[in-house]
Model the fold of this input.
Amino acid sequence: MEKFDVHILGCGSALPTTRHFPTSQIVNLRDKLFMIDCGEGTQVQFRRSKLKFSRLNHIFISHLHGDHCFGLPGLISTFGMLGRTAELCIHAHQDMSKYLDPILDYFCQHLPYKVTLIPFETKKPELIYEDRSLMITTIPLKHRIPCCGFLFEEKAERNHINREMIDFYQIPIYQMNRIKNGENFITPDGDIIPNSRLTFPANPPRKYAYCSDTIYNQKIIEQIQGVDLLFHEATFTQSDLPRAKETYHTTARQAAQIALAANVKKLLLGHFSARYEDDLIFLQEAKEIFLKCQLASEGLYINV
Amino acid sequence: MEKFDVHILGCGSALPTTRHFPTSQIVNLRDKLFMIDCGEGTQVQFRRSKLKFSRLNHIFISHLHGDHCFGLPGLISTFGMLGRTAELCIHAHQDMSKYLDPILDYFCQHLPYKVTLIPFETKKPELIYEDRSLMITTIPLKHRIPCCGFLFEEKAERNHINREMIDFYQIPIYQMNRIKNGENFITPDGDIIPNSRLTFPANPPRKYAYCSDTIYNQKIIEQIQGVDLLFHEATFTQSDLPRAKETYHTTARQAAQIALAANVKKLLLGHFSARYEDDLIFLQEAKEIFLKCQLASEGLYINV
Done:
């Protein structure tokens, strides 16, 4: 199986503590790195992860609250000092330029590489990145300001050739592409050999959904249906439900309800409020609803 | 002796590492806190120091490089979330407003307290803060951009009353202020009792000088003459002297030469480049010139 990991660089919420860094994650798909959110201190956490800075070309910012983007200026500067030359694309709400442009103008006049802001809409799902093996789509969320999650979908691989059967039917090389694409083979005698006899099915494409920050929002369920891994914010516990509603955040129990309704394979909880002394309270609460549940923590990486 | 401590929150240079945070310090004079510089991650280091956020009302930024100010937005936001109401004064070069105003406008619209930028000149020494017990003066430095160090000077205390002698000479209470101010006492018989018999001398006022970032600059020696503690940057070692000159930084040896020429009581080295594996190399180099020398490190606090 090709590499598809999520690295947690920070999983605290707005108030940083000595236990948690503010939000940042790296998705590693086949050694291409994609950063989601970039709170203060992200560059040091990135360094700690031992992932290669040079493998990162795209950063996705869910929304413009400081705990999700105040690490960008330092990260951008550091990349410059390290001699980066490759373009860095930052995908975010259009207001990102109001924040970042003055900083780039003042502090980064001699940056040896280009920073490109790519704005996205936050009201409906939008395909914002695509390459040979991956699609990234926004997941509209409901927060105090415009906010999106991100759905990382592997593209379906083509079927794998069954070498033995290819030899057996003496299928010529120029037909191989068609076979990989699922076509049957017709022998010189006109017999039809079904594709299923000539190939092994490809690995099913995997999906990772990142949903933070958001109030409990059932509208996302359809889009994240059946994902292999769901990261969902669980800022509060159920005892602070009024506070969760007021601040447009989710409780651990509600996150588990979303996971259950979306029939996801695994739930990863994060964005923990600093008010709780022990994060285990989030896990206990979520597990009452949805068993395949895990707590995010700085330094954790998890296979999708 | 009244409290006069320097707490090191970060003492690395521009490239943050897992060993050092970028620059920030807290000067604690009689439980009033003064922050010098505010690199990324400062708020968490401040929290770790166990000093009280509410005791901080003044921040001094030496210059507008990211490793000295990228922690401000997070710190300001966090103070807001914690319900701060007292004004926060930020003393810096006038360009600070180009950096901070857009951030305050976008992220801090509902801040429950006032942030006031107080610009200072960087070309000649200027008194930028004064209260009953303290004066803070800028120390013009030579760096790639306008930059100042800061001289913290305790004000001279009045002499302490020698209670026994006051009783012996039956000096009336209303005379006490004059005696504290150094006047002699004249008895009803016309005898002159010299002040030195009636008081103990006050503690000599202490001085702390912060000098970072700067190229080796003998012009500062006069202003920091005889300070109790000198923090001087030592970004490089002597083997990287050309690099130090090129980037307008100082070597450990040069910092020690400044300390020696200024006849300071103690030298504290910091702003270490990430290129050296072991900071002890700075100490060894400096001690060849100036023995009373110590390395800064995160979490260290030192009595002035």
